[in-house]
Structure formats: structure tokens, C-alpha cells
Amino acid sequence: GKYEAAEAMNRRALDGYEKALGKEHRDTLTSANNLALLLRDQGKYEAAEAMSRRALNGSEKALGKEHPDTLTSVYCLARLMHEQEQYSAAKPLYERSCAGFQKMLGTNHPTTLACSSNYASMIEKMNNASSRGSTSSRKKRKRSPSIGTNQETNKASNRVSTSSRKKRKRK
User: Fold this and answer.
1) How far apart are CA 136 and CA 29, in angstroms?
2) DSSP secondary structure letter of residue 2
3) pLDDT > 60? residue 75
């Protein structure tokens, strides 16, 4: 793919949002989260985690811990940890995002369902690994086939952000 060009464009967009709107504006934070997803897809896990945590911390501060955009950042970080088989780090993030999405969006919302499905997939992997006597010393993988695609995460992220903006405009 054209990851290098996409990364450069995402970094320019993030820089532009920061200058125009500030580091804690919700559009800036969404841009940071999008960059984290792109970095993850390139296998740049340390940079992806740093950007994802930056987006999460900013969202918690600017929007609150239960805002759908904040929960999306929690969910994206959970998926990043899951893909790296860092299950103990992913589990509380999944639990927080699943519970938050259920409360804020409802149990049948597509984002809630996707989050719950990925969490269940991770729990199943953990149970299978422990039943085989496996340890966490397994090698990190670039992509886990049981996890939804980045396109699925982006759709969830965009769906939540769009529905939040529509609600904000109506008020």
C-alpha cells in the first residue's frame, strides 16, 4: 500500500487541526486516533500506542470519560493491545469500552456489537491459550486474523463521531 504517503497526509492533517483548533478539539483528537490506526496497520506499534494514548488522554480531558468519542479511543487502544497479544492490558480497556458503548449507544448499536465481538474473540483466544498451557511469551504478530479489519474500526469511529456531531447540531 501507499502507507508512507497516507502517514504523511495524516500527520499534515493533524498538524493543521492542532494549529487551527487546538490540541484538545474533538476533530484534532479524531485525527490523532486515525493516525494511530494507520501506524498500527504499518506495524509501528510503539508509535501507534503513543498516538492512541495521546488521543485517549485528550478525549478524556476535553470530552469526558463516557463520551462516545472517548470510548472509541479506548476501544482502538484495546484492539491495538489485543493485536499484540497484550491481553492483560487489552482486557480492562475492552471492558470499559464495551460497558460505555452499551450505556451510551445501546446494546444493539453496531459499534457496541463490534466492540463486544472483538472482546469475546480475545477472551476465546486467552482461554484456548491457557488450555494449551501456553504462556504470554509468544511472538507478537503484525495482524490477528480474528480481529476485525481497520476498515471496521474506522467505520465504527466515524459512525460514533458523526452521530455525536448530529446530536450536538440539534441542540
Assistant:
1) 32
2) -
3) yes
User: CA dihedral defined by 105, 110, 113, 119, rounded to 10 degrees?
Assistant: -100
Q: Is the pLDDT of residue 114 over 90?
A: yes
Q: Could you tell me which residues come within 8 angstroms of residue 156 by beta carbon, excluding any fewer than 6 positions away?
A: 72, 75, 110, 111, 114, 115
pLDDT band for 129, please (50, 70, 90 cuts).
confident
Q: How far is CA 123 from CA 86, 92, 126, 128, in A?
A: 12, 12, 5, 9
Query: How many residues can be counted in the chain?
Result: 171
The predicted model gives 58-63 an average pLDDT of 96
Residue reference for cell 462516545: 68
Neighbours of 165 (CB within 10 A): 13
User: How far is residue 105's CA from residue 53's CA, in Å, rounded to a whole number?
Assistant: 23
Cβ 69 vs Cβ 86: under 8 Å: no
Alpha-carbon gap, residue 137 to 135, rounded angstroms: 5
- The C-alpha atoms of residue 98 and residue 109 are separated, in whole angstroms, by 11
